[in-house]
Amino acid sequence: SQTIHQWPATLVQPVGSPLSLECTVEGTSNPNLYWYRQAAGRGLQLLFYSVGIGQISSEVPQNLSASRPQDRQFILSSKKLLLSDSGFYLCAWNDRAEAFFGQGTRLTVV
Amino acid sequence: AQKVTQAQTEISVVEKEDVTLDCVYETRDTTYYLFWYKQPPSGELVFLIRRNSFDEQNEISGRYSWNFQKSTSSFNFTITASQVVDSAVYFCALNPGTYKYIFGTGTRLKVLA
Lengths: 110, 113
What we know:
Chain A is an all-beta fold. Chain A is built from no helices and eleven strands.
């Protein structure tokens, strides 16, 4: 069966510090991978998606970047965090029938 | 333009009441998929249902039922005899046959004992 791992679950980082969130998928090959952000009390905003290794599409210009170094690994990064980067980050993959989500990372930038 | 609107930001009901969560979508595609997800306090999104644009049959799963009406571009979700465990944020989503999923802003449901 397919599973998706996302870590860490929670993170508190100071403004200006770097960020690296990692997501890995098991049980499938060549998945479409996604990073979403959910700001407090708001909906899900698509940040990046990837249809293959090294292929990244950005939906919203921002302080973040994404990389896909391996087929089933998707990384969300920032060189310098801003206060506005705080939120709940969700990794997902889909098989065209359904999107499966990780358990999320709650990031607080202080 | 593709869009999902969940006009109800928050709903509170008393346990055992029925509640309907509204979802209205916009797309020009003839083939698309609609979804409902539940987000409990833990944060993880839990898949509830997928419906494709060619299947307008309503579906019932236990206390959950979904009413898909293409004529009004709506995909509403009803919980019958609500329970406290149903308290969560519920998201409606549209996949217009591409790589993207478009989510509504969610409806927070509070079921009071």
